[in-house]
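Protein Record: Sequence and Backbone Structure Tokens
======================================================
Tokens: labelled as protein backbone structure tokens, with as many entries as the chain has residues.
Task: work out the structure tokens from the sequence, keeping to the layout shown below.
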Amino acid sequence: MATPQTGAALSALSLAQRAEVIKLARLCRVDEASLAWLGKLDATLIRTLREQATAAMFDADRKRFHNMAAASRLLPIPILVLIIEKVIGPLICARVCGLVPPARAIEIAEKLKLPFLVDACMELDPRSAQALIAGFPRHLVVAIARELAQRGEYVTMGRFIDLIALDAIGPVVDAITDDARLLHIAFFAEGTERLGDIVERIAPARLQAIVSHAATGSAELWGEALALISGVDGALQQKLAAITGELPEAALNNIVRNTQAIGRWDVLLPIVARMDARLQKRVINLPVIQDDAIFGDIVRAVFRLPDIRPVILLLTQLEADARSRLDAVARQIGLSLPDPALLLPLIGGR
């Protein structure tokens, strides 16, 4: 059972750690808060643990499932579909179908009732489902995605982002009209590489609407948007940063408050540093940022960054009074920001 302590421990995790803990909890069918102690591990270690747990769970009784897959080839598909839906059930179906030749598995899948098929997809072993998912016809991918999104099965969808065909991404995005749902799915993506492919295939107006929705939503939703923006490659991150920087001031104020609430200035600051000088100056000088508590957390975040140079340069965009106040706050907490003049030659200056 979740307690205030475990809930606080979960919220204290990094975005990557939180995503991995939730995915592991889903795999083990336990409450995510019960695994908050895994926050002592790096996100990559939690992912390794999850992959090992996946192998252990899906490889159990593999020989028996191989035998069932071989036996299924002897039955006509209409009879097999009837047995699957009435007797075998979605869990065993999912275990077996990953071992059936993809063409036959797809032929069977097209004849299963959609709710049952979606139940089975939630139980699929992603290691053996690659050829199967990639070969699904587009209409079936869209129908399954729409149903999974309506059920709120974002972890399942995140697992299969890397597997669906590229030409199905656009129709799937169009089928999921709720922008928050798209952000939830992206948050649970297995790899960041495919996120770029997905974002590039979203129409500009829809992409702006998604960013705006995240900016004006809850702190949790903004955290997921931060994970998406920070996870794509440099050019695409710059594009998303520019969209964010052009948002109305009320939306930017909400971003500041939500970033402070989730303690993720170390993620936001490098994104703002990717904006052009005009947008940097606009964002970093927002009145809502001119707060000692926020300035203190910004200073602390700078020293958590693997490369502080772009953010140090960003901070030179602060108006003189605000910069003096920032430096004063830094001194109060026992820190001293490097002199930007010493870093400019390394960064290239402006």
About this structure: Residues 1-6 have pLDDT under 50 and may be disordered. Residues 273 and 311 are 6 Å apart (CA to CA).
